[in-house]
Specification:
With 404 residues, the chain is an alpha/beta fold. It contains 14 helices and 15 strands. The strands form 4 sheets. A 7-stranded mixed β-sheet has the order 2-8-7-6-5-3-4, with helices on both faces. A 4-stranded antiparallel β-sheet has the order 11-12-15-14, with helices on one face. Strand 9 and strand 10 form a beta hairpin. Helix 3 crosses helix 10, helix 4 runs parallel beside helix 5 and helix 12 packs across helix 14. The longest helix is centred in the N-terminal third of the chain and has 20 residues. The chain is globular and about 75 Å long. The chain starts with a helix and ends with a helix. The protein binds pyridoxal-5'-phosphate. The site of pyridoxal-5'-phosphate has 14 residues, from helix 4.
Length: 404
């Protein structure tokens, strides 16, 4: 075991995370990432020193905050390779981003149109499309998975028809960690004239994302999984797509001119950002991206891949333990132990100061496909090291002893 564990080089950033006490193995980053000091400081500064509203104040403080807010939008654009910051829409998170697309872009769909999802999608990339189906009469198809838990792109290609207007897929599965070949998915979708939406919630914190190189049309992610604050996320879409999309929320900030007879709307991204935005959340997201870049996303990817490898190798040795997902998963390992409910695994691990997630992970159709009600899931972040894998393995050995 110790020879295997020697492979994962630590990133040595644990001391940046004040909410991780010594000896606590936090293995639930796929749910939400812990926050590094620079992000906490940016949030504190935003409220304690520089706070003001944006876009409408005539006083200097508000003008300065507006500059900082818009600089953050440019930072996000650069981080994901968007050609223009006008293509970056701030939302509450990936869930809101996908709902925005379903409401606004989806409003032009009609009976006979189809969209295609996959078996491994998070509920937030299923339910908004079902709500759209109920409003418009479109049909939803579901691409199957390969035996090792990837979206089966060959099967998807065979399913797609000119009736398909959208393919919406997770870039990285939140349960299996499987990484989508997004470029190939884009080619297949575009070949029938469909757009590709990528749910990048689990991808953006763990691998380099360049929306232009991926060839997708929409990209959604949440700040809180990227070491940033909760309540802030991003929808990216190509400028020409955003330009053609109607607003979905009405209110301040998204208008051009309002009379009781008629309202005209601001161009994107303002058209989709009704109301006072999460000003300080945006600043926190900026700090989070700077933090991730200071480590290097490629380093983070390699680090998490090494931890996944260690974990999978170590868990292979535990009796009656079933591993899900492919060996080259990005940062996430799901498993089950025969005869033990994942909640019991989670509770015993908690006693050992190991925090994992146990449940359906908002992916009930995937649980049904796997034939389990729930899984236990360990997911990694920059602060994890081989000591956390060792603690997980010790805890699981105790689970095995308790349950015989
Ligand atoms: C793949 C995936 N998509 C979407 C979401 C939803 O993100 P949020 O709850 O931050 O909107 C999550 C969160 O768990 C996720 O893992």
């Amino acid at each position: 075991m110790s020879t295997v564990l020697a492979h994962a080089r630590p990133l040595d950033v644990l001391s940046d995370f004040p909410a991780i006490p010594e000896g606590w193995a936090y293995l639930d980053t796929a749910a939400t990432a812990q926050k590094p000091r620079p992000v906490i400081d940016a949030i504190t500064r935003g409220y304690a020193e520089t706070y003001a509203t944006v876009h409408r104040g005539v006083y200097q403080r508000s003008a300065d905050m507006t500059l900082a807010f818009e600089a953050s939008r440019r930072r996000v654009a650069k981080f994901i390779g968007a050609p223009s910051s006008d293509e970056i829409v701030f939302v509450r998170g990936a869930t809101e981003a996908i709902n925005l697309v379903a409401h606004s872009w989806g409003a032009s769909l009609k009976p006979g149109d189809r969209i295609l999802l996959s078996t491994l999608e998070h509920h937030s990339n299923i339910v908004p499309w079902q709500l759209l189906r109920d409003r418009t009469g479109i049909a939803i198809d579901v691409a199957p998975l390969t035996g090792d838990g990837r979206i089966d792109l060959d099967a998807m290609e065979a399913m797609l028809t000119p009736q398909h207007k959208l393919v919406a897929l997770a870039h990285v599965s939140n349960v299996l960690g499987s990484v989508l070949d997004a470029r190939h998915a884009a080619e297949i979708a575009h070949a029938v004239g469909a757009k590709l939406l990528l749910d990048g919630c689990q991808a953006v914190p763990r691998l380099a994302v360049d929306v232009q190189a991926l060839g997708c049309d929409f990209y959604a992610f949440s700040g809180h999984k990227l070491y940033g604050p909760t309540g802030i996320g991003v929808l990216w879409a190509r400028a020409e797509i955003l330009d053609a999309m109607p607003p979905w929320h009405g209110g301040g900030a998204m208008i051009d001119r309002v009379t009781f007879e008629k309202t005209t709307y601001a161009p994107p991204p303002a058209r989709f950002e009704a109301g006072t935005p999460h000003v300080v959340g945006v600043l926190g997201l900026h700090a989070a991206i700077d933090y991730v870049d200071s480590i290097g996303i490629d380093m983070i990817y390699a680090h998490e891949r090494a931890l996944v490898k260690l974990t999978r190798e170590a868990l292979h040795g535990i009796n009656s333990l079933r591993l899900f997902g492919p060996d080259d998963s990005a940062g996430i390992v799901s498993f089950a132990i025969e005869g033990v409910h994942p909640h019991d695994i989670g509770t015993i691990l908690d006693e050992e100061r190991v925090a994992i997630r146990a449940g359906h992970h908002c992916a009930q159709p995937l649980m049904e496909h796997l034939g389990v009600p729930a899984t236990a899931r360990a997911s990694f972040g920059v602060y994890n090291g081989d000591q956390d894998v060792a603690a997980l393995v010790r805890g699981l050995e105790r689970v095995a002893r308790i349950f015989g």
